[in-house]
Write a structure and sequence with these properties.
By secondary structure, the protein is mainly alpha-helical. The chain has helices at about 1-15, 30-40, 70-80, 105-120, 125-145, 150-190; strands at about 20, 45-50, 60-65. Strands 1-3-2 form a three-stranded antiparallel β-sheet. Helix 2 packs across helix 4, helix 4 packs antiparallel against helix 6 (about 150-190) and helix 5 runs antiparallel to helix 6 (about 150-190).
Length: about 200
């Protein structure tokens, strides 16, 4: 997964594309933040949620904006890390084992990238959950139309819907807590991210 993602980044860099867009395929937000650091060494800085994703997508795309000195950054990284596209060491990462383990000297930068990513991802929860609940309600009309709208059927379907609504509310509370936590990390570091928060 990482090799494919890195090759796509290098391809976009070689074609001088203004934006590189990808999903988190690392199954870890901290590893994805480490990848965002690596992307910056090749000339693409993390720029938030991408417009490629429908609002509320459970696996959204994230955008990376091409930097003015992207060619110089990419050339430096290619010279010092020639084996990176073929599972070799990556800029700023420890050699061996998982290739997305930051070196101590870049850990703080990776931590700030992680905070930005978590703030952005936390903002997707509200829309995602509401859409799922509406779809679930519509889906329940199918068995109800076959069994009849009896009190027992309505009670069962209502209980199932309330169970998932409770899960969504729990997830929303966690997302809000995560948003506040990582917003505070960014604020304490002097970073203004995002500039217009929609989830307070």
């Amino acid at each position: 997964m990482l090799k494919t993602q890195l090759r796509a980044l290098l391809r976009d860099s070689a074609q001088s594309r203004e934006r590189y867009e990808t999903r988190n395929v690392q199954w870890s937000w901290r590893r994805f933040a480490a990848f965002a650091y690596v992307a910056e060494q090749y000339g693409y800085r993390y720029d938030g949620l991408s417009t490629l994703s429908p609002k509320g997508s459970p696996n959204p795309y994230f955008a990376f904006r091409r930097l003015p000195d992207a060619p110089e950054r990419a050339a430096w990284s290619a010279q010092h890390y020639p084996a990176a596209p073929e599972a070799g060491p990556l800029p700023g990462m420890r050699p061996g084992g998982s290739r997305l383990r930051p070196l101590p000297e870049v850990q703080h930068e990776v931590d700030l990238l992680h905070a930005r990513i978590m703030v952005d991802y936390s903002r997707t929860h509200r829309r995602r959950g509401l859409i799922a609940l509406l779809v679930l309600m519509a889906a329940m009309l199918i068995p109800l139309s076959q069994t009849g709208f009896s009190a027992q059927s309505l009670l069962v379907c209502g209980s199932v819907w309330l169970f998932f609504a409770a899960l969504w509310l729990t997830g929303l509370a966690i997302a809000r807590h995560r948003y506040r936590k990582y917003s505070r990390v960014l604020r304490d570091s002097g970073a203004d991210w995002p500039s217009s928060p929609s989830l307070a």
